[in-house]
Amino acid sequence: MAATTLAVPALATPTHSAGQPPLHQPGDGAGRLGIQLLDAPTNRRSDPRAHTYIVDHLNPGQSIHRRVRVSNSTPTPLHLDLYPAAAAITDNAFTFGDGRAANELTSWTSLPKASLDLAPDTSSTVMVTINVPPAASAGERYAVIWAQTRAASSPAGNITQLSRVGVRVYLDIGPGGEPAASFDITTLTASKDPNRVPTLTANVQNTGGRALDLSGTLALTNGPASTSAGPFAVTKGTTLAPGDIGAVHVTLDPRLADGPWLAHLKLVSGLAHQEATATITFPANGAPAQIIEPVSHHRPIPLAIVVPLVLLAAALLGVREWRRTRRGR
Fold this sequence. Notes:
Layout: E1 7-9, E2 33-37, E3 39-41, E4 54-58, E5 63-72, E6 78-90, E7 93-96, H1 104-108, E8 109-110, E9 115-118, E10 122-131, E11 139-152, E12 160-173, E13 183-192, E14 198-206, E15 212-213, E16 215-221, E17 229-233, E18 239-240, E19 245-251, E20 261-269, E21 272-280, E22 290-292, E23 295-297, H2 303-328
């Protein structure tokens, strides 16, 4: 089956754990089990998600190949199981199937080996191949490429602890081009929890054809006495399937003044960006949360893209004028 894209070395990325704890927590001096995606499609060079996850679009009957590096930075040898397993987007989160749960995408996914032995402080590269059958129906599928190790968690060895790390797979299937990724920020809510910690919540609707992993920042300006605060990071973990509506949250410092503030929220998922601005005031004791419909605007196209488009349009007009003049002569 023909490959749709050329796999190229990706930008260096830190070891990624797809939602599961590593073998050892970072900083405990014992090292960790890690996995890292090495390849990304050439048409996604500027997409940060494609350098962490396998994100692609294929027509039925096509295939892709992606390399992942599995590493052992622990002081002991590790025997690892390698396998794909099912995943889904449930309750606005990317969720993993139990054990080796299967779905359509896992049945299309293969690895050259089912296990791997790694000495301390070594790594190995494994090729992941996804072959989409010609009769595959349109839609986005989800899975995870896992590296898993087993360890006895008691001296008697009668309890086994499983630890695994993985790379997510977001694969869209369908004839023609890939559906666009887009979203809208519909409302902002300023609230405080019972401990008086202020939170800004943004309701987001996925209006595109691809799943979204939302991140971003919140900046507050024009506050009391012309003060500013931030930027504050959006709490990560919100994933929206196409058509889903969900919420992202920004937790702020309890010492922050109630306002009013001019809030400027920037959200991003891969190459899809959206910004929203609103004047907010966090509620005083006993007051209800404040819900605001923000002024939303998509991030403008970068000048580096606009200028070549303008030059191309001018060149096309020049060619057309030259042909018209030549016909007249």
